[in-house]
Amino acid sequence: MKIAIGADHAGYELKEAVESHLREAGHEVVDFGTDGADSVDYPDYGGPAAAEVAAGRAERGVLFCGSGQGMCMVANKVAGVRAALAWTRQIGELSRRHNDANVLCLPARFIDEATALDIVDGWLEAPFEGGRHERRVSKMMNEKREET
User: Fold this and answer.
1) Coil, helix or strand for 129?
2) What letter does residue 110 receive in the DSSP assignment?
3) Is 72 one of the annotated active-site residues of the chain?
4) What is the dihedral of CA 122, 124, 126, 130, to 10 degrees?
5) What are the DSSP calls for 49-86, one per residue?
6) Catalytic residue among 9, 21, 27, 65
């Protein structure tokens, strides 16, 4: 599977660990950065990685920042992305099974490496269940919202 990844400075170390894990598992990884622990702005890395997924050039994406929230917000602004924030394996799996999440966001300041790897593995292995969830995902993706 081709997976786009990106992180800000807070998520850099965890991104590196997950990237190695993904490559060892045989996945192709496209790393959108950052490449160090110097302070950077998460939209500069999360936006391009999410766009790679939305364009179909990557099947999935994994993003990292301190809380995971910023990356999740950035990714969900990209049309076609369904990003989910997960801090346990079960939450990650449910985001796939029920929401067909194509981008996973991880809170690097709140989980350790072993937990992150477990979440990523569960998320990648979990299938979308379809059925009643298909109807809901379709509504979510097709709904037009009025700006106020």
Assistant:
1) coil
2) T
3) no
4) 150
5) HHHHHHTTSSSEEEEEESSSHHHHHHHHTSTT--EEE-
6) 65
Cα distance between the two ends of the chain: 40
Separation of CA 123 from chain center:
10
Select which of 21, 27, 98, 133 is catalytic. Answer: 98
Give domain 2-142's CATH architecture: 3-Layer(aba) Sandwich (3.40)
Please confirm, yes or no, whether 98 is among the known catalytic residues: yes
Nearest to 106 by CA among 22, 2, 38, 24: 22
**pLDDT, tens digit (0-9, with 9 covering 90-100), for 24-55:** 999 999 999 999 999 999 999 999 999 999 99
Q: Measured between alpha carbons, how far is 113 from 104 in angstroms, rounded to an integer? A: 15
> pTM surpassing 0.90?
yes
Q: Where are the domains of the chain?
A: 2-142
Angle (CA) 65 114 109, round 5°: 25
